[in-house]
Amino acid sequence: MPHALRTTVIGSYPFPAWLEFATGHMEAFGVDDVAEMVEDAVAVAVKDQADAGLDAISDGEQTRLDFNLSFYGFLEGLAPEGASRRRFGPPGHDQRGKHAVIGDLLAPRGLGTVEDFRRLQRLAPAGVGLKASVPGPYTLSGRLVPGGHYPDRWAVAEALMPIVRAELEALVAAGCRDVCVDEPSMSCYAHREDPRRFVTLFNDTVEGVRGRTRLSTHLCFGNFKARAVAPRSYAPLFPAFLDAHVDELHVEMASREFAELEVIEGIAERMDVAVGIIDVKSYYIETPEDVAARVRRCLAFARPERLAFAPDCGLSQTARWAAKRKLATMVEGVRRVREELALP
Ligand SMILES: [Zn+2]
């Protein structure tokens, strides 16, 4: 770990308004226009995160504008996205389209994260850690309807595993030293699936890069349209997930008012733990003193060298003005505790 009480992020960041408008009018733009748009959007996300003073930043996942640029746009073997089954009413996960699997699942061009990482390297200021995020195979399988010779979600996830594994190897070869393999679907569905099977799939996915980069995972309870989708308890995941081959495990705590905070004690005996200390679903802007108090609560369970702090999830579902203020107060609150403890 670079240093004690590190501040970091989970990959996504809100799109600037103009980028969101553009995503609804993609047909109006040429390939070079889109490339320029992406470059500008990443520069904005990088600046906001760097201004907040974070120890590690991401590209804000500003490239995922439409199907062609999403992870699914890189996969072969899919039919075009079916129409959403519910189009009106309050926003929810059931308004997100799924793609039917109709052939062999392949990604001959990779999943696009290497190009994203190189752009981030080019645009980020010196001295800040650069983090890349890749969805793990189980989470990636969540928006695919099993079909062809893949009878169920597990078969789809196992077919995606070597694709994600190759992507991780390419990222590390490109120089990425901080990679998060996001598996929120595992924390969402551990209550009804075998968590040991999740760990086996996870470890198979990361085996090729283990020890060659800082590996982390993000385990939350869902945040599409700022909605959760699962019983918000980590109990079903443990102790199985203590055997996950990661250097850092991230848990969502702020939106759950730090329920089960004691779970970080067991995690910190094996690996670093990144605590979600900012509620991305609430428009209450945490004060630096709120953050400092939360950090002190975590210190009752884990040594400072084992602790990192992040928002509960990516910030893409939080308005940008709030995301900026929340990151700034997170960094300031953590800084106050570093100062109290005379940490560098
Ligand atoms: Zn999340």
TrEMBL record:
Its EC number is 4.4.1.23. It comes from the Bacteria. GO terms for biological process: methionine biosynthetic process. Residues 6-332 form the Cobalamin-independent methionine synthase MetE C-terminal/archaeal domain. GO terms for molecular function: 2-hydroxypropyl-CoM lyase activity; 5-methyltetrahydropteroyltriglutamate-homocysteine S-methyltransferase activity; zinc ion binding. The keyword Lyase applies. Keywords: Lyase. This is 2-hydroxypropyl-CoM lyase. It comes from Luteitalea pratensis. The gene is xecA1.
